[in-house]
Amino acid sequence: MLRLFERRPPAASVTEIEVAHSGEVYKVALKRLAKSRRFTLRVRAASRDVLLTIPARSSLSSAREFAERHAAWIGARLARLPKPVAFAPGSRTPLRGVDHLIVHRPDARGVAWTEAAPEGPLLCVAGDAPHVSRRVADFLRREARRDLEAAVARHAARLGVQPKGLTLRDTSSRWGSCSTEGRLNFSWRLVLAPPSVLDYLAAHEVAHILHMNHSPMFWKVTNRLFPETDKAEAWLKAHGSGLHRFGAD
Ligand SMILES: [Zn+2]
Question: Which long-range contacts (CB under 8 A, 24 or more apart) does 105-111 make?
Answer without folding.
Answer: 111/135, 111/138, 111/139
